Every structure is written in structure tokens, then in C-alpha cells.
Sequence to fold (218 residues):
Amino acid sequence: MTPYAPTTDDPGFWTLLGPDFAGKSTVLDRLHDDHGWRVVSYDDRYLEQYPLIARLRQRWIDDAFLWTGERYSPELVLSVLHTIVLHLRDQLARSTGPEPVIVDSYFYKLLAKCRLLGLEHDPTFDLWRLFPRPRGVLYLDVPPEVIWARSGQGALLNAFEQRPGTAGRAGFLQLQSELREALLKEVGDVPLTVIDGSADPDTVMADVLASLRTEALR
Fold:
């Protein structure tokens, strides 16, 4: 497959970022269903034709990540995650139609969270950073206390959404605060729009659409 390479006529692609439980999936689904955007994501809905990636994603959280340093080395665990990130890159390479394209988190969130949770392999991360850059990043900014409530006070969290050994509200709030800082630093050289993700869903969607229209004119 020919890697994605924007040309002078290519409108490029955008990335939607945010903390856990920020509402990204809702925004992406509405962009896809109501506004004709192509969504590149590793959410289950967008993996129906890619059972390999769907299975890897689930098993990575439940097995590979959970047993890092015991059953599996960090390098091996990240090599499995690399396959999922390559899927996002390959989907971008296929995005040659007229519809605009938005990518769910891209590699940014995976890289930041892995580092915060102690899973590091710089050669892998350096390779991800060589992937095509989005035209712009939209960041759904939601206070940690709000996303804690959205998580059912922690009842809906998986192992990749909390620090091992520090389950609970305080650990979650600390991780999400650190994640925000890490994400904004990671996308520091990409045009960034911050959106209040704690507003009601219709307001968030209107702000997203307005931001995308503004970005498209730049």
C-alpha cells in the first residue's frame, strides 16, 4: 500500500483528541452519520471489516497491557499496539475520496498514555512521529471531575484508563490532569483548537463544526 502523502490539492485530515470519556465517539459518529465525514478509528463500530484489529484492540487491553513486565516485555506489548497504529495510518492511505477525514486520537493519545503508565519504547514512538501530520487538532477539553462522573465514578474504567495500583478517584484525576498536559505538549507543533467538551452535546457539536469550517479555510 502506498503510504498517505498529502499533495497540494489534498485537503488533509483532522484529529479529534480529548481525555477518556470526553465524548469523542459521540462527535465522531455524528460527523459520520449526519455530515458525511469519513472517520478513521479503532472504535468497534469502525472495525467491522477489520476483525484482526478489533480482536487485537480488546486483547491488548485485557492481556498484553495488563501483563506488561510479567508475561510480556514492554517492547513486545508495544509491538502489538504498533499494529493498531499502523491500521490508522493505512486507513489514511485509503482515504482518497471527496469526503473529509477525521482521525480518532491518532497515535497521540496512545503514546501519551503509554508513557504516563510506564510503558515506553522510544524507537516505536519515534516511528509514530514520522507519520503524516493532521491539518489540525481539535481537543475536547473536559475537567477531570466531569469525566470521573461520566465514568460512573470509575465503574466503567478499563486497565488502560487508570494507574495500576492506584485505582480510585484521586488516581484517576491525577492521571487525567497529566494526560491533558502530555497531549497538548505532543501536538504543540500542529494547529490546535480547544473546545469545551463539558457543554451539552448539541453545543459541542456546533463548536466542532464551526472549528472545522474555520480550519478548512486556513
About this structure: Helices lie at 24-35, 51-65, 74-94, 108-116, 122-128, 144-150, 169-186, 201-216. Residues 1-9 have pLDDT under 50 and may be disordered. The chain has eight helices and five strands. The beta strands are 13-17, 38-40, 101-104, 136-141, 192-196.
